Amino acid sequence: MKKPRLVLCLCLVFFGFSTGQASAKNEWITVPVILADYYGWAYTEIFRDHAEVFGWSTAGVDGLGWAITLATRDYEGRVTGLFFVNLAGIAKTVYPVVTLLGASDHDTVERAWIALGTHTATLLSLELLGKPALSVQAMGPRRDGIGLAYAFNF
Questions:
Q1: SS3 152
Q2: According to the model, what pLDDT value does residue 127 have?
Q3: Domain extents in the chain
């Protein structure tokens, strides 16, 4: 199988395999896996590839998102912060795919394959073991015409 086809298959696994539930369990496994993959290996790969502009801007968006999430008490602020965190996470997931399509250096390509493997393992572990206990749940619409009622659970 050619590399672009394999990358396409991995992307389908990333975005197509979902249980549809956000149950909180096994955080002692899933949280360290997320931290090691998305905050350890992803940034290591980016900076070893000398993509400093991408790395620092992604880290900035990540930091901004966590700062907004932790500093605000209202629902809208937390959702905005998590939006930035998720945006940085998507960028760190897409980076290895783009690197594989454009890199010719063996070490860079090897790091990109490792990143795709660790991202796949992270996403599969979250699906199989349960997501961390941070989720946004929606209920509604209510009959009083106000719209949706949201609950932010930790």
A1: strand
A2: 79
A3: 26-136+149-153
